[in-house]
Amino acid sequence: MRRLLVLVLSALMVSAGTAAASEQVVGGERASIEANPWAVFLTDDRGAQFCGGTIVAPTKVLTAAHCAVGRSPAELRVVAGREDKLDRATGVSVVPADIWIHRQYIAADEGEDVAVLRLKKALPYTPLPIAELSDRVLYQPGTQLRALGWGRTSENGKTSRYLMQATVPVLPDAFCAETYPQFVKTDMFCAGYQDGKIDTCQGDSGGPIVAEGKLVGVTSWGEGCARKDKPGVYVRLSRYAKDLHPIVDAAPDLITSAR
Ligand code: 4AZ
Question: Could you tell me the CATH superfamily of domain 37-127+240-253?
Answer without folding.
Answer: Trypsin-like serine proteases (2.40.10.10)
